Amino acid sequence: QLQASGGGLVQAGGSLRLSCAASGFTFSNNAMAWFRQAPGQEREFVAAISWWRGTRTSYADSVKGRFTISRDNARNTIYLQMNSLKPEDTAVYFCAADYRVPITVASKPQYWGQGTQVTVSS
To answer: Average pLDDT per run of 10 along the chain, which is 122 residues long?
Structure first.
């Protein structure tokens, strides 16, 4: 299972770091990703990181240069460092894991976290 945390309320321009702790499966063998869903909108891709050493990352255009995804296999955890936050980043953020890549909503990832709320005030 996946447990996301670290969300909260922050002013525009601020930063947050989300965490997603994994258990019950071989974490290092899985690619990991973050998605988000704003009210009334579909869930969308935010960032992904490859399995094992996480040498490959990808980002949605809307967050490139502001967000950074990373992984710590010793802690079975991924992170999403979010800087220069904007009101349009407000959403529930979900983490996902799968050995199949790329991880997308349509691919129905093997594991989903429960989500953590991020609210950015203007």
So the answer is: 97 98 94 97 97 94 98 97 98 96 91 95 95
